[in-house]
Specification:
It is a single chain. This protein is α/β, with parallel strands linked by helices. Helix content is 39%, strand content 14%. The protein has a 6-stranded mixed sheet with strand order 3-2-1-4-5-6. It is built from 8 helices and 6 strands. Helix 7 packs parallel to helix 8.
Length: 227
């Protein structure tokens, strides 16, 4: 089964801007095989490619609540992972709709889609890089876990790129994924690092999919099924 990640540009208002959703596929060895930039849902589905595939998305795919938040956000909060509280009303107000839910409905039946929380994935990779995973006292674990925070690297608002954060996240990810020679863009303007951040988002998602298929015994993050 192919392993694919998607950075989904959630806000409907941003779809016609230079910002793009990004699809990244990893091969069986964990090397970046494809990077596809897309705007419309049809382009995204085409970029995902033929079935069967496991695709991990950085956006809500199942939103049953009219208000409040989903159980998964409560669980993440309990784990000290700040997560945007998702409901139908909130997504409509903030993003203009539920784009991930619509995308999940448009995918072929043989493509399995799950969602993930990017900062949690990066935080867990940092934990593993620091030697985490060995049996330790629960109090020591919590103290170490609370001290870990993923670098801030995503753009805020319509611009305001964070090239230093992009470089830091690329360095974390490169210890786990063969980026096939890809490196962050020199920040001559905001658009290069904004595109780079989207590529990193999709690559993190693809890595979650790759681990789920190739090392299923190594749990990486909390995910919710789309079907």
């Amino acid at each position: 089964m192919r392993t694919v990640g998607l950075h989904l540009l959630q806000s409907i208002d941003l779809v016609d801007t230079p910002r793009r959703s990004v699809v990244v596929e990893l091969d069986s060895a964990g090397t970046v095989a494809r990077v596809v930039h897309a705007s419309t849902t049809a382009q995204i589905v085409e970029g995902i490619g033929p079935e069967p595939a496991l695709i991990v998305v950085d956006a809500p795919l199942v939103v049953p609540n009219a208000g409040g938040q989903r159980d998964v956000e409560r669980i993440l909060a309990w784990c000290d992972v700040p997560a945007f509280p998702v409901s139908c009303g909130r997504l409509a107000r903030v993003h203009g709709g539920m784009r991930g839910v619509g995308l999940a409905a448009d995918l072929p039946a043989e493509i399995t889609a799950i969602e993930t929380h990017l900062d949690l994935v990066l935080r867990l990779l940092m934990w593993e890089d620091g030697g985490g995973g060995a049996t330790i006292d629960l109090a020591d674990y919590r103290a170490q876990w609370l001290g870990l925070r993923a670098p801030t690297y995503r753009p805020k608002g319509p611009g305001r790129a964070n090239p230093a954060g992009v470089v830091a996240v690329a360095e974390i990810l490169a210890r786990h994924v063969d980026l096939a020679g890809w490196t962050p863009t020199a920040p001559d303007d905001d658009w290069g690092p904004i595109r780079d951040a989207a590529i990193l988002d999709a690559t993190v998602c693809a890595y979650v999919a790759h681990r789920a298929i190739h090392t299923p015994q190594a749990a990486l993050t909390i995910a919710t099924p789309s079907r």
